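@channel sequence for tomorrow's demo:
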Amino acid sequence: METWSQRIFLALIACCLIPMAHAQESAVQEDTEQPRAIIPPDVEPRKVDEALIDTEDFELGLYTGIMSVEDFGSNLVVGGMLNYHLSEDLFVRLGVGYTETQETSFEKLGGDVSLLEDDDRNLLYYNLSLGYKFLPGEAFFGDDLAFNTNFYVLAGLGSTEFAGDSRLTANFGWGYQILFTDWVSMHLMMQDYIFDSDILGEDKTTQNLEFTLGLSLFF
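C-alpha cells (generated this afternoon):
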C-alpha cells in the first residue's frame, strides 16, 4: 500500500510541476525576445563644410609681394602663374614676374654715378617649374568651417631679363595653398631666383628672394 500511495503522490507532484516549468520557460522566451530600448547619444556630430579640389586640371593665378634683388634693394613684384596638375601630387607651373629695382648703394654714395639706364632697371623673369604637393591638411576657421590645405615644393629653370641682358635662372622654393572652394585657392609662396651677374664689375652668383601672396582659379 505504501508503494502505490507513494507513486500516486509523486505523479500528482509531477503533474503540478510540469505546467509551472512550461509557464516559466515561456515567460523567459518572451522576455528575451522583447527588444530593448535604444538610448540616443547626447553628443551630436558637428557638420563641417570642407572644400575640395575640383576635377579641372588647369589653375590660373596672380600674385604680388616683395622681391629682394641682390645689390638692387627690395621692391614690389607682380606676377602670374599657370599650373597644370599631372596628378594629385605633381604639377607643372609656368611663372612670370616683373619688378622695378632701385639704385645700388654704390650709385647712391657716388653722386652722379649711374650703372644702369632707367629701362635696364626693370627686371622680368619667366620660368617652368615642377611642383610636388605633400603634407595635406586642414585649416579651421571657427567651429563650422574648414578648408583643405597643401604644402608643396617646386624647382625649375628659366630666364631673367635684367640690365640689358638675358640671364639663365634657376628657381626653387615652397608654397602653402588654402582651398576656399573647389575652384578658388590662395597661395603663400617663397622662391629664390639664382642667376650670374657682372653688373658691379665682377662675376658672381646672386640670390634673389621673393615672398608673395596670390589667388588662383581652377578651370
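heads up for whoever presents: The chain has one domain: 51-218.
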